[in-house]
Amino acid sequence: MTALLDVPLIRQRPELPTGCEAVALTMALHYYGVNVDKETVVRQMPRDSTPLIENPDGSVRSWGDPEVGFVGDPYGDGVTINPKPLKQVLDHYRGGGTALYGKDFKVIEQAVGEGKPVLVWFTISHEMPVMRYWKTPAGKMFLPRDRCTVLSSPAQMMISSLSTTANLLSGAEKMFGWKKESSFGFTMQWDAEH
């Protein structure tokens, strides 16, 4: 059995109900001995302040671009931030990070196997994403992911969510939809030597 990286668990709630990216990054930074709190990380995240525009049925017509910064409010009604803008916060504390998009899950397993925690974006219930999307004011289409967490072992994923810790799976390859998700999922990793 592969050892679980000693990534500390940090509660997301009640302070950051939609700020899982900031909490996951804080957990990974603590793994490397960087003593920063989740509130500081969330304040440092780039933001896209584009206002939410809804369709008559309540679905999202237009909103921000997570490649620019966090869309919405991580303290309330927010959605996500993608790896590239979140990496700006990582770079403030340590170098060596990489924003990976659409890589095969084996790349992620290898990084974690080498002792490098990896932030992964996926759906909350680990199923294929519901095909909901919106356009940014520039016309860019965005398909949101619902959750970001730290992958701390190729064989197990531990998350801090709703103030509880859950051992989500015994084999990442067995997770429903994981291979398909990884073909367009987002990850961020960094090198332990930096």
Automatic annotation (TrEMBL):
Residues 5-129 form the Peptidase C39-like domain. This is C39 family peptidase. InterPro entries: Peptidase_C39-like (IPR039564). It holds the Pfam family Peptidase_C39_2. Gene3D superfamilies: Cysteine proteinases. It comes from Sporolactobacillus sp. Y61. It comes from the Bacteria.
